[in-house]
Amino acid sequence: MRRADRKQMRKKSIHPCQSTDKDVIKEAHAENLMTNLSNAYASDLLPSKEGKDLTKCFLLQVVNILLHYIEKTFDDKSKILDFHHPHQLLEGLDGFDLELSDHPESLEQLLVDCTDTLKYGVKTGHPRYFNQLSSGLDVIGLAGEWLTATANTNMFTYEIAPVFTVMETVLLKKMCGIIGWRETEADGIFSPGGSISNLYGILVARYKQYPEIKARGMAVLPCIVLFVSEQGHYSIKKAAATLGIGTDNVIEVKCDERGKMIPAELEENILQAKRKGQTPFCVVATAGSTVFGAFDPLHDIADICETHKLWMHVDAAWGGGLLLSRKHSCRLSGIERADSVTWNPHKLMGVPLQCSALLTREKGLLGACNQMQAEYLFQPDKVYNINFDTGDKTIQCGRHVDVFKLWLMWKAKGTYGFEVQIDRYMELAKYFYKVLKKKDNFKLVFDAEPEFTNVCFWYFPPRLKHIPKSFERDQELQKIAPKIKAQMIVEGTAMLSYQPCGDKVNFFRMVFSNPATRQTDVDYLIDEIQRLGKDL
């Protein structure tokens, strides 16, 4: 089928503009605009002099496409994805061509491309999407993201982002207060994801101990080392590589059987590093590890950091949201003793990607560490309070507005609304755990109840169920999770993650952070794993 024919067929699936005015002339005008989309181009939209009506019609069509997608996202009978291999997307699918032309394409074709982009993507808000720590689709957050894109401003000065920079200050104070810090003394910044927030934490930790690093570089420093649990996020090593510390100078501390850092091992690693002539400067504790959902013992780690005068950074990118739950916040007891914290609202709190904050207990440290006082941006004699020109606290210049969607969701839910949502995830995790525990063809990685929403498990097909543990059996078990996951993706029925860890062969990792998920979706997933795996 020729592309023009396909385009004509696809045009029928695009909803016409809806007019609230029944006037025949206006309806005819709207219909005429629709017909003209095939001959209209981006240059005909606003700010083109006659572009107002066409712009309205085009954007209403885009909204119709998005609303249709949102409805499908929340329909548990719809597929999570229409899977195709990369080479198929590159070659083109049913008129969906990713190649870029030297000549403009019509607005009608752009609408078709918008539809296809969503069609071949993953519905991360689907009730049976469990693949990542960030999932779900919050409609208020989505509205916030739309408004943010419409405003299209930069977060470096109050001058060009007056409302957003003040919102950021309000949110940072709120989050610091929830951690347990005095709001007037704490500080922070929103950044492009937890990896960058962790990098900021290590950056300010190094600056606090060695302020000369900013001007003179690593050459004037001793051989500095930092510590993180062996279950800590890989972004810590990335940060060390980026900052010139080196991955060899990230010392991984042994964990117990549940994936928590062992304080005695940390103490020994610090003493051993000192005996080798190395200089410890920072410990990264984890509050909610990526795979096991483990919480390091923060009070014990804080005691050790105080004894050795080390900076304590807590990576609570995943677990930070639990601070909003009066029932479960005890898992982060001791976080108030940290010097810096990473917290990702785009994970447990369900804020649309991306939304991450680095919070520091000492006010002014981010600015001292990062400011370069660019004269064309940060003039000292502006008409307003320049304390709200926050851009010099960051390593970026251009910075996306990530705060408005969080602020709007907080307005919509209130702190207690987030609490209800998070408590429900914890109940779902407990339910899933209890169901699996009763099934003889599933085996939990940990026998005890989950501490967080992570539930790790193996599925044993009938042929492996009664075979005693051995190297040969584990070699076969290693293949099961990838095969089931592959079939799930091909059929588009569900998505969840798997991985090996240490001496444990591939196992599934279930996480709950999707507000659309119900118990029926959990039951469906269990049945689906058995259906796809029983003959493997």
From TrEMBL:
<dbReference type="InterPro" id="IPR015421">
    <property type="entry name" value="PyrdxlP-dep_Trfase_major"/>
</dbReference>
<dbReference type="GO" id="GO:0048786">
    <property type="term" value="C:presynaptic active zone"/>
</dbReference>
<keyword id="KW-0456">Lyase</keyword>
<dbReference type="GO" id="GO:0030170">
    <property type="term" value="F:pyridoxal phosphate binding"/>
</dbReference>
<dbReference type="InterPro" id="IPR015424">
    <property type="entry name" value="PyrdxlP-dep_Trfase"/>
</dbReference>
<dbReference type="Pfam" id="PF00282">
    <property type="entry name" value="Pyridoxal_deC"/>
</dbReference>
<dbReference type="InterPro" id="IPR021115">
    <property type="entry name" value="Pyridoxal-P_BS"/>
</dbReference>
<keyword id="KW-0210">Decarboxylase</keyword>
<keyword id="KW-0663">Pyridoxal phosphate</keyword>
<feature type="modified residue" description="N6-(pyridoxal phosphate)lysine">
    <location>
        <position position="347"/>
    </location>
</feature>
<dbReference type="GO" id="GO:0004351">
    <property type="term" value="F:glutamate decarboxylase activity"/>
</dbReference>
<dbReference type="GO" id="GO:0005737">
    <property type="term" value="C:cytoplasm"/>
</dbReference>
<protein>
    <recommendedName>
        <fullName>Glutamate decarboxylase 1-like</fullName>
    </recommendedName>
</protein>
<dbReference type="GO" id="GO:0009449">
    <property type="term" value="P:gamma-aminobutyric acid biosynthetic process"/>
</dbReference>
<comment type="similarity">
    <text>Belongs to the group II decarboxylase family.</text>
</comment>
<dbReference type="InterPro" id="IPR002129">
    <property type="entry name" value="PyrdxlP-dep_de-COase"/>
</dbReference>
<comment type="subunit">
    <text>Homodimer.</text>
</comment>
